[in-house]
Each structure stands twice: as structure tokens, then as C-alpha cells.
Design a protein that fits this description.
Layout lengths: L1 H23 L13 H19 L4 H18 L6 H22 L1
Helix pairs in contact: 1-2, 1-4, 3-4
Length: 107
């Protein structure tokens, strides 16, 4: 099960880093909602780097749980108007899976 947590951390971390970079790049051909969001992108970059760092070596379930819980909290806060509904649900979902995997590994 530790291998599953490691793979999850690496895949999620790389995904967050890619999304973080894309959030900071202006793409004029997309809809107006796809404008650069530097704070949002920076949060993705920092969180993605943390997931990659903990996934590259032996992942600590507690750290993955804390990172996941932080995404759940950010997703819940974002539901009150800071992000669109779908974005908030994605954050809550990825955070919940991270917490669930971390708890399963600890048992």
C-alpha cells in the first residue's frame, strides 16, 4: 500500500506542478476565465513540489494527509466564491483521496 501512496504522491505532484505553471501563463485564445492566476498557480507549484518531494523518497503518510487536508480546506473555502464550483470540487476530491490513502497506509 505504501507503493500506491508513493505513486499517488508523484502523479499528483507532477500534475500540480504542471497546472501551477499553466495557471501563470497567459493564453489569449482561451475564454476570459482562463486568465493567469498567480496566487493559485503558486499554491499548485508549492503543493506539487511537496508531493513530488515526499513521493520521490519513502512517502510519509502523515505529510500526505496534511497536504491532502490542506487541499480539502482550500476547496471548502473556495466554494464560497473564491473559485468556481468545479475547481473547488476537484481540490476537495484530490485532497480527500490523499487523506484516505494516507490513513489506509497507516493502518
Amino acid at each position: 500500500m505504501l507503493l500506491v501512496l508513493r505513486i499517488w504522491s508523484l502523479v499528483l505532484g507532477v500534475g500540480f506542478v504542471v497546472v501551477g505553471v499553466l495557471r501563470m501563463v497567459p493564453i489569449p485564445d482561451l475564454a476570459p476565465f482562463a486568465q493567469p492566476e498567480y496566487v493559485h498557480g503558486a499554491l499548485h507549484l508549492v503543493s506539487g513540489a511537496a508531493f513530488v518531494q515526499w513521493g520521490a523518497r519513502r512517502p510519509a503518510p502523515r505529510v500526505v494527509a496534511v497536504l491532502g487536508l490542506s487541499w480539502v480546506v482550500l476547496g471548502l473555502v473556495a466554494r464560497f466564491g473564491l473559485l468556481d464550483h468545479t475547481d473547488a470540487l476537484v481540490h476537495i476530491g484530490t485532497g480527500a483521496v490523499s487523506v484516505g490513502l494516507a490513513v489506509a497506509v497507516r493502518r
